[in-house]
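How a chain folds remains the central question behind the approach discussed here. In the encoding step, the backbone of a single protein was reduced to a row of integers, each denoting a local shape. We regard such an encoding as a compact summary of how the chain folds. The sequence in question and its structure tokens are set out directly beneath this paragraph:

___
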Amino acid sequence: MLETSATGAAGPRAFLRVGGISVARQQLALALALDCKRIVCIARGLPPELVDVQHAAERAGAQFNAVPGARQLVGLITAADDVILIGDGLFAAIPEAAALLEKGPAVLVQPIEQGLAAGFERIDLKAASGGAMRVPGRLVERLAELPDDCDAYSALQRIALQAGVNQRAIPAAGAGGSLWVLVRGEDEAHALEPRWIRDRIASEIPAGPGQWLARGAVRSFGPALLHAGSGSGIVIAAAVVLAAFGLGAGWFGLGPFGLALCGLGWLTRQAGVLLGRIEQPLGGEERLAGLRREIYGWGLDAVIVVITAWSSVIEPGQGLLHRFFPPLMLIALLRILPRLSGQRWAGWLEDRLVLGLVLGAAVLAGVGSEVVHGGALFLALVGIALPRAELRLTRP
């Protein structure tokens, strides 16, 4: 973490931010993905950005050390250790980088044309550095023979190659290839953001309209929110407020407006979830985030049921059961069918933006009860008509 950025004023490369996450935090995520037990950073002092990295490492159960130069590594690493080194400024996709490094000792390399154009160091006439390597700990002892102000990564790379450590090629560069970039300045960090955000929020599950809009919003406004420090927290809080306002609107007889607010609340919540996925490369809070998402989802569905029931027209002599039963069955079927039909229609069935707008329009048109009854009946027939093999049911 000694290399300054190309702009100089921005400080070390390691603290440049891509989509709200620093290069150093991304490198830490890679190290933890490889089950590293000790994290060592070569850095001048202990600035706040490095303290943030230290705290993240310690929360993940790793030991953290910061040293001022290459020679200090000798006292921390033994001959029996397995050492993974990540070059200053490397910002790589964790799955691909981890897959290359977990195979065993190797110096990662790439074609000379590709590497030099991207700012990586030349190794020989045909190869450039890949920015990461895995070497036996015994090779680190040779740093004691070099000046303390030497570049530790470059020195160990030469030592490893001279010792016969294998070379391993990184994925080819390109828009459709793996994310493997040397971030040297703010301009490069900003240019990388759209692709980083796109990769982080990508999903193999077909998305419904609401999810598609949430992804578009995050791609457009996510970088500004993340750099401002707001991130997912303020967006998720806004989703809760919208759901609460929707319930209040329903209480005051504004059912269509309340249902539309619930739909917008769900859309906002989805955007917050996507922002949280960008903010958490370490994955340490996935379980807690998933639990909160489930709680919000069930709570929002309850609000939609209540508002729809309040907005329904009932005949004389009918009680609360006649109000609440139809929307409750509609929501129940919307939750059950994705489990039966697989992922093909899950995006549409779980899309509460579409549901809120459709129900709100139906209530506004005076046909809310008919749409709820008809929707529940249609979903029930769809569930019955699904192929038995797709349902994964067995004969009794």
Observations:
- The longest strand covers residues 127-136.
- Strands lie at 17-18, 21-22, 38-42, 63-67, 82-86, 90-92, 106-111, 127-136, 167-169, 180-182.
